[in-house]
Structure formats: C-alpha cells, structure tokens
Amino acid sequence: MENIKIYKGDIVFTKQTDYFECFKDGYIVVNNNKVYGTYSSLPEEFENLEIIDYSNNLIIPGFVDLHTHAPQFENRGLGLDKELIPWLETYTFIEESKFKDIDYARNVYSSFVEKLKENGTTRAVLFSSIHKEGTKILFDIVHSSGISAFIGKVNMDRNCPDYIKEDTYESLNDTIEIINEYANKYPLVKPIITPRFIPTCSDKMLISLGRIANEHNLKIQSHLSENQGEIDWVSELHPQIKGYANVYNSFGLLKPKNTIMAHCVYSDENEMNILKENGVFVAHCPASNTNLSSGIAPIKDMLNNNLNIGLGSDISAGHEISMTKVMVLAAQLSKIKWIYNNRNSSFLSTSEVFYLATKGGGQFFGKVGSFEKDYEFDALVIDDSNLSKLDLSLEERIQKFIYIGNHTNIKKIYVCGNEIK
Amino acid sequence: MENIKIYKGDIVFTKQTDYFECFKDGYIVVNNNKVYGTYSSLPEEFENLEIIDYSNNLIIPGFVDLHTHAPQFENRGLGLDKELIPWLETYTFIEESKFKDIDYARNVYSSFVEKLKENGTTRAVLFSSIHKEGTKILFDIVHSSGISAFIGKVNMDRNCPDYIKEDTYESLNDTIEIINEYANKYPLVKPIITPRFIPTCSDKMLISLGRIANEHNLKIQSHLSENQGEIDWVSELHPQIKGYANVYNSFGLLKPKNTIMAHCVYSDENEMNILKENGVFVAHCPASNTNLSSGIAPIKDMLNNNLNIGLGSDISAGHEISMTKVMVLAAQLSKIKWIYNNRNSSFLSTSEVFYLATKGGGQFFGKVGSFEKDYEFDALVIDDSNLSKLDLSLEERIQKFIYIGNHTNIKKIYVCGNEIK
C-alpha cells in the first residue's frame, strides 16, 4: 500500500437501504483515494501511521445530485404556480437563451457550482444549455471546484422557440467538438449525451445522439414521464411506438446501466420493467415534481423492485440545491403517496432517502457513495455540535443533520480522496 | 398625530389572498405603532418628516406562527419515521418531562426564542409543557426578545405516562396562578388556555378549562383531527358525542373567534361547518402532517369556504421553524392534494400561502399581518440582493425570498412598531 490516509470520526453510511452503518469513534483507511476498510478500532498494521482526527464530527459519504440544470440557477423560486410546459415557455427557455453570452455563463455557472459544492454535493449530473462555449466554461468551472460531474450540452431542434432552437447538424457538430475536447481533459468531469426530451428532438437528432453515445462510449441523460401533458404529446409525436420509454429505446438511448431518466412520475409497470431491464437510473426529483404539480413518483415501489435510483435537485423546477432538503422532501412525499395508497406497503425511511442520495446515485459514477472497500473516498465532515444538546445515537445525529442541518455544518469535503474544502 | 414614523422601501403584503399588493419605492406611514397609510408616493402632509430609508429592500409583514411547541425544540428532526401516538410516546413526552428542571427550560427556551425571532416570526402561539415554573420562564424570555406571543401551560391528566401526568386540581391551580401573574404583566405576551388534546384531558379538566377561559377572558388552543388513530380514540372515549370538534364544543372550548385548532387534516364538511360557525382558527401544519404521515389538510377548500386559517411550524413534528419553509410546503402539499383530487378546483398559490402566514394567522392577534390602515406595524426588512442577478418584479422577488431566502436576508424586525432587531 502506497498512499495511506486514516480518518477518525463518527462514521455513518448506508451499505444497504434499510439501516445506517455506524462506527462511533471509527476509522476509515484510504489507500490511493479508495476506501481500504472502515473499522470500529484501528487494525494493528496501521497503528503507527498519522491519523486525521475528526473526532466528534460525523463523517458521511458526499452527496450525489443525479439531475439538475446549471443554466436555470438564477430562476430558482420563480414561476412555480405553473405546470411543466407553460413554465418552460414562460421562464426557462428565456433564461437558458442568455447563455449564448459567455460572460453571463461564467458569472452564473460560478455561483451555481459554488452553491453545489457548499452544500456537500460531490458528484453531479448536469444539464448545460444548447450553447457550446457556455458548456465548455461549465466544464472548466466544475473541474476547478474539485467536484466530479457529468456535463451535457443540451440538444433540441424542434418544438421550441426559435431563439433556442438548434440546427440539427450544428447541434451534433457542437456535441462532437465538446466530446473531443473534454472526454479526456479532466479526470473527474466528463461529457454526457443530453437530448432535452423527446418533444424537442427530431428523429434524426435522436438517432444520431444514440450513435454518438455508442461510438464515444458515453453515458446518456434525459427526462421521462414527468407530466401527463408531456406524455400525451410524446404519444402524439410517435404514435407508432407504445410508451414513452420505448421511444428513447427505439433510438438507442436507453444504454444499459449508462442512462439517467429524470422524474418517471407516471412510469407504469411496463415502463418500470423497461427501466429495470436496461439498468436505467431513475433520478427522483421530489421538489420539482411538487412545485410543477407533476405528481409523486413511485420510488418506494421502484426500490422494492431493485431499480437503480438516485435523487436530483432539478434546479430550477426544484428550488433547493441542498441534497438534505431533497432527501427530506423525498421521504415526505413517499409518506403522502403511502397514505393515498391506503397505507399499503410502506414509505421511504430516513436511511432509504440517505442511500438514494449517496450510494443509490453514486453507482452511476462507479464505486461511489459508500465507505465499503474499494469505494472512491468522497466524504463530508459534519460538525453537528450546534444541532442538539441531547445525547444522541449516530442514527439520530444523522437524522438531525438531514432534517435541520445545512451547509454551515459541512467542515471538510473530499472527492475521490482529494480534500476540496 | 403624535408619533409618526415613515418607512421607505419595496413594500409587499396581501390584503386579499389572491394577489400581492406591491409598492415599488413606496412608503408606510406609521402613527403610534399602527399603520396610518401605505403609499406609492409620499403625501404632501408628511413631506418634511424624516424618512427611514430601506430603499431596494423588501418590506413585508412579520410572520405569524399559529402553532408550535417550545419544549420540543431539541427534538427537531428526530423520530420522523413514526406516526403521532408512537412518536409522542417514544420521543415527545420524555423530552417535555425535562422541563421540570428550570435550568434546562431556560437554556432550551432561550435557543428556541432566538431561532423564532431570527427567522422573522413576530407573532407566535406557543404550547409550553405542563410545568408552571418553566412556563413562566418562557413568558419572560419571549417578552425580552420583543416578539409577541400567546403562551399556554399544557394541561393533561390522563392517558399519558405517569412522569408527565398531572393531578387535575394542581393543573388547574397552576394554570390560574400563571394567568394571575401574566395576564397583565407584558403588553405583547399573554396566556392562553391549552388542553393538550381530548385523549389526555379528563372531562373535569376540560369543563374547568372552558370556565377559566370564560372567566378570565382568555383564548384557547388545542389539536383536532390530526390522525385517524387519534380520531378513533376520541370517539371511543366520548361515544355519546358525534365528531371530534363537538367534543371540544360540548366543553365550551370552541370559543367564538378565540380558539385555535391545529391540524384539522380529517375535518369533513360537518366539522368544517362547526369550525366556521365558531370562527375557529385552523392552524395548518404541513411539515408535521407529512413527517408523521398524518395526511394533507383540505386548506384550499377551507379558504374557499372563508374559514380562519393560519400556518404553524409545529415544532417538533414539524422540523422547520422558518415560516417561509412552512409556506413552501403548504403550497407543495396543496398541489399534491389537487392532483389526487383529479385536478378539480385549484391549489394554494404563492400569494395565498403568504397571506396565511401573515394576515391569515395575524387576525388571531387582532389587526396584525398586513400594512392596511390601523394594522399594528409588524414588519421585516429583507435584503434580497444575494438571491438573484435578474431584473425582477416585486411579485417575483417575494416568491424568490419565500422559496430560496433564509434568515440571513432579514435585516430588521419590527413588532407593533418597536424595532426588535
């Protein structure tokens, strides 16, 4: 072992969904940026090595935001009395069109990334806008921050206002230019193929993006079954294909284990099966789904059904960039869905929403989001001393942090072994 | 006019539920702590007077928290995978029993009141614990803070653990002692009669509390129809009376226009009519109602039906003390209820939840929660400059503050004309 680091503190993570792994005054041994082991007491072999001592602080995995829109950052909290399509048309497209201006892009993206990092998001999957130069700036800013991310230049060439509609060829060329420039430029920030959603992408666009993803070995992200109006629209646009997910699939855009579909609010059993068969990651975005009156996604059912699931802040339909706030709302909505389902089955517990925001979404990045052996060491050191005067268990302390903590409790941040704060 | 003060800024409030009153670079003229008028341009008669200039800041009414439990403050974020009765028994009663210790009470109540004030709550209706001395300390601390409140020593003499169960006579005597000492001690902090809820109060207790409220001209608060298990329990305890609200009514505890009932999640048409006839204030507690899997109260229907309604943080079943967070969740849950109701009628808009958190709850205190003529001047001065780089209308700025602002944006606080921060 070459490059050992040992961290001491009150360690909490979720190996499985249904309970917290807790090590009071425990140790995480990191070897070459990966977890070598997590222990209640330090094994003899490490006894003479230096210990980075975070005693009395919580050490937890960094948070994973599986779906969010960087260029919508300035729009947080606006237009939330509307539903998806009018919200897009009244607020979102106009704001995104501003990212043609690279100074505006640099300015807003800097604030966005700063907030993301400040709130302990160590991994994020981002939509940029359609703009090539603005997207490149986002790559550079995210890399500088130390966060790990997949970033997608958005593609859209139909059914949207002219000021934000792309020419198909230009859109594809811009996408390839970004891939060529950024696929190997940064170790932790990579491109991802990003058709906005079916209604705004021509068949030619969708087929070509599927091909590019294959040729360049890239992951894919888009939106699925968020809103009934949207679903009906997709069905009108593709009457020959049954089911929204199958439209993506028919264009080669459900790449096994490498695709994120945000929302999946109205995914029925058929659609869930398609998602499961293809190992699609569902990005559950509870704030967005309530703010835009979309609905409550059947996440507990999906979890029981062993689908891949993570959480998304979905800025700006979601207003909260903090993943702890997203976790809380995921638990709350799950309880409401359970009530309306006559309290059959159960709702998402605190450990389950924590799992979704760490290991659940982390799996999209590889071995990320846990302190099990060989996981990349992404960690937050949490000083929770101001959150309670009570004598609490670690399970209770992590609950308290999730419910009433905030970014000011985050003292240190590690991404893939690197201390970035 | 003797004691005129003039405030200038970007004024926003809700006279009615359905839209924001906005005065860009407007003026509020306050005479003897009450609003004399709100203007777009300053009337001639005031032209030579000094102006307190908050230009570019929002000036909005202070927030009203119509239902919260001060001695549960340390429990925020704990036990929220449970429902009401097990949550009470596992966490809440044990924590409240600690308030026998006046040092503990002083310590926790100081933190609680500081947080309440910090978040812009200028009026609150509080449950204390059963403890007389601890309750007196709460009166003193709230008075010192400058906030206005009704504070109730809790009464409970059955169906609860012995360590928190009161002797009926002692409970009533303690209640009367507090009334005698505090009814006229502080101008803005007053006692309120507070039976915990029907299951934990004997008939003798309930009858006596109704009488005390009448004799001493006091307001009343309690809990109603929060959870189905609780409702069934009440019906078993009082089989001769039909409907939970009627149990309170039969003991003289629905005092016209002077009673708050928290929750009312399961209030049907009959119960709503009783609440309306008696001018009962419904304290809607969205965070509590989701955290404990209680349900979604039919607030939009109640509002359409002209009931008196305010919002409550309901610490600690609710985890957020900030009324803006409570507003957001009220809007979100209302959208979910609307979806499950096949999108009939509509959901609570941003102006409606703002109204509930200001004028709606404020009416329990008199003319409070608005900048109309003769309203007591409770105000928050909000520096929202860090919330957006966009050029926004006042309606949009207040939305942004509600959704993404926090206590750090609150620059000044006024309660009944007094600057308290």
Automatic annotation (TrEMBL), chains A, B:
- The EC number(s) attached to this protein equal 3.5.4.3
Key word Zinc present? yes
Domain (Amidohydrolase-related) spans 59-418
User: Required co-factor?
Assistant: Zn(2+)
Which Pfam families does the entry mention?
Answer: Amidohydro_1
Q: In which pathway does it act?
A: Purine metabolism; guanine degradation; xanthine from guanine: step 1/1
- Which domain of life does this protein belong to? Bacteria
Q: Which reaction does it catalyse?
A: guanine + H2O + H(+) = xanthine + NH4(+)
GO function term, MF aspect, one: guanine deaminase activity
Per UniProt, the keywords (alphabetical) are: Hydrolase, Metal-binding, Zinc
Binding note for cofactor: Binds 1 zinc ion per subunit.
Q: Which family would the database say this protein is a member of?
A: Belongs to the metallo-dependent hydrolases superfamily. ATZ/TRZ family.
Its job: Catalyzes the hydrolytic deamination of guanine, producing xanthine and ammonia.
In its UniProt entry, what is this protein called? Guanine deaminase
Q: Which organism is it from?
A: Romboutsia faecis
Q: What is the lineage of its organism?
A: Bacteria, Bacillati, Bacillota, Clostridia, Peptostreptococcales
The coding gene here is guaD
